[in-house]
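Chain X:
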Amino acid sequence: MAIEICVKAATGAPDVLGDCPFCQRVLLTLEEKKVSYKTHLINLDSKPEWFLEVNPDGKVPLIKFDDKWVSDSDVIVGLIEEKYPEPSLVTPPELASVGSKIFPKFVGFLKSKDENDGSEQALLDELNALEEHLKNKGPYVNGEKVTAVDLSLAPKLYHLKVALGHFKKWSVPESLTHVHNYMKSLFSRESFEKTKPAKEEYVIAGWAPKVNNA
């Protein structure tokens, strides 16, 4: 029986896969493990009744295992690894937090209206730390093989690239060659191509209210 998963539909296009990086992380995990699944696209502006009945919090991603709905991407990814151990995507515990501060620093910089508040440097510090790690241990966080930490970072780095490029005309410095190669490599994976937002404009539309109301 195929797994059922609820993910965000695109902003303004409820029939198209949306831009939630936490949903994409789960879809990437399923794709990399070649697990079949059925997708329910959830319009977050008008959530269906049945979805709210099984999930009163109304958050995505939400996945159905053995007739039980489970939320939270960390929990979901752990359960997928448990149920479908091959191929293993386990990240060694000491590497699990590599790059974990990039996303909050990206959001801080994206929303910033003050060029001198240090938010750009805070993001650059995290990207520099990832560069150093990949230089010594790469091409992926745990060496030659993609693991869970890469699948968590890939959608977030994609959002960073698209949203900062659009709203700030900013891009990852060319000097961070290992980060650039890492992003290129992750974004070109078949699993990423299949699960990324249908168009970059959906990523921009998803962030617009947060940027404009910051």
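Chain Y:
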Amino acid sequence: MADNKVKSTKPANKTPPKSPSDPAKDRAAKRLSCDSNSSHEGAVAGEVSALEEAFRKFAIHGDTRATGKEMHGKNWSKLCKDCHVIDGKNVTITEVDIVFSKIKGKSSRTITFEQFKEALHELSKKRFKDKNDEEAVQEIYKLIEGKAPIISGVTKAISSPTVSRLTDTTKFTGSHKERFDPSGKGKGKAGREDLVDASGYVSGYKHAGTYDHKNRLHT
């Protein structure tokens, strides 16, 4: 009987380890947790990248040597103007310059992306006074994300007395005058090269071609 009792207890001791599904469930739960965290981090990174991309575009504007990692004061002011951070009421160009000078280092003339965000945080308090700090920062980010420098006046024709005088073909003299007809239209090759006149008249004769007309009138 004692032997039977011992034998009956052995299977009872072996049952607890027989649960291989539990560690697998734990590992699966961990993977799901990691996936959800990574997707959340990816979403946050996407939001930041939109702001950083705008920073880079403005940082390299007008400077072929710029890397996009730092921004100088001129482009900082342009960003605030083009993205309507400056509203002329709560935020002015003077305040934008003051914040830039405050954030950048004493011996530096540029700001990094991290300093850029600090500067925006400073301006957000003035630009969105009716919102709390977090909401104000998000609102000012929305003004900038996905934006690029506005290039104005590129195709606008320059109009000035000097330009008008230089382009007025009626005032041209010498060989330059010969390149255009009385209407101001270019003569093309005929205006650039000396073509042989086979009409029989002296070059520059004003009444060329009128001889036959006069004879017909007298007959």
